[in-house]
Records
---
Amino acid sequence: MEVLKGNLITIETLAADFLRLGVKEGMTVLLHSSFKSLGQFVVGGPAAVILALEQVLGEEGTLVMPTQSADLSDPAGWSNPPVPEEWWQTIREQTPAYDPDMTLLRGMGIIPDTFRKQKGVKRSGHPIDSFAAWGRHRDEIIDGHSLDYPFGEASPLARIYELNGSVLLLGVDHLSNTSLHLSEHRADYAGKQEITSGAPMMVDGVRQWVEFKDYNWNCDDFAQLAADFQQNTGQITYGTIAAAAAQLIPQREIVDYGTEWLKRNRK
């Protein structure tokens, strides 16, 4: 029988690592994460990561995570995997309406899926691109999340920007950095297109397929954008949380840099 090796990871060791990285009491932090990157054995599992961060942030702090649910999107745009066109209308008609308490996440990982169920956490009402938040600025960040342009000016990302929040990448890279979609929203560049998205929602007690405006978001160049941001500003703090590579980034600064970078570099 194989015996686990390595350091035991606990709430206390995680909290110490977050503090060492630069997370401080009272901050607003948007976390993107990979639980498996932390190491072999985390006492308490993903809940320990959440509790450690909340412990460091304290009562004046705010923790936010993306809780996106792409399974509710229009099947015409699915590619992983695609489904036959003859299925599309049935999927649109039969997929259960978005429910913040019930609708599962897709591709977000187990930490945010655990976080959304925690007492005191609120999830926004966007059926595809929701966020969940805990702490002092929870309602300010979550309430009013617009259906149109879900990463734009009426989004949790814009509220975090106003609060001078930080992005924490835990075992993931800038492909997961949704804050750079706010840069996309604000920038004018070649190839930017408005599209129509849709999802099932409850409207006045009736399930409906609701359409809304969006953009053709593209994260393919986010890694280069972030590398240039670091080279020119040096404002990304690198470290480790248990065995996971981590980055702590001032959100407003990278969003502003990204807005100008996209104007120059997307052709």
---
Amino acid sequence: MLTITDKEFIQLSEYIKANYGINLSDKKKALVVGRLQNILMEKSFESFSQYIEYVMKDKTGEAVKTLISKITTNHTYFMRESEHFQYFKNVALKYWYEKLKNSKDLRIWSAGCSSGEEPYTLAMIIADFFGNEKSLWDTKILATDISSRVLSEAQNGVYSNESLEAVPKIWRNQYFQRFDNQNSIVVDSIKNEVIFRTFNLMNTTLPFKKKFHVIFCRNVMIYFDSETKRELINRFYEQTEYGGYLFIGHSESLNREETKFKYIMPAVYRKE
């Protein structure tokens, strides 16, 4: 197994933080080495310096995509932090349903969507909420992540039956179909409501024509230092319509003195 020197780790860490906002502490050194070993072996690199040079010089962007996919932990599951979904349905959706009756254009962003459980859950909630009126509304959800690997999994929409145990039975019957003995697949009516895109949250210019009514960015900022998080929250604020909601992870928090978002409840904020 190849080892990484302090100099190599610093070089790799600084490159990742500068370009992707991910803060790799010394405690993550063993994790990084372990997750990158197979790549170094496949490419016959003799040192991490050679690998880092390869990543930085690769103009296709594939090398860095693989790097990011390897070092990020895309752990999520259906109904995670379920109180958020209850608030989204009972408060946020009700509010925007009344406010948007004329335009019928509801814009939601699932930022850092990982393998798709979050945006698909939002799509199922919306389908239930609007019922027969659903076809009259544009409620497509933008779901973005930095990892092309997990986005591919999300687009496939195939999940183990075991992972669906937390999903209400009525949803399992209505919004999933049998894929094989161990897995189920999201039905097309829900799949078609989610637009998956690769996106780096460190982009200072956000390419969105319209602002969002709801943004979910949960358990993503745990990778960022305070300055990076503050800058990202400011960009979220600028991309949120007045009256819009921001949902973050319960392990995260915003400094209320540094954000214009108003605290509503744990991990829920609003632009007022």
---
Amino acid sequence: MAEEGDEHAIEVHLDRLLEGRGMTLTELAERVGVTHVNLSILKNGRARAIRFTTLTRICEVLDCQPGDLLSHRPR
């Protein structure tokens, strides 16, 4: 079982998706309805969780699937 401080093995591809759509993190935050800080934490791989409602909105705004945004890297 994973300990509290263990690093996770999920990679976030938000930079790539934003670049591909010519969108800034600030614009995405406004359109999704979350703070720039919260999206920045997600983008930098420091988020410990994401609400499905937030994931849904990100996917709607970026016209992508969750698998486009997140991937698992083997340890």
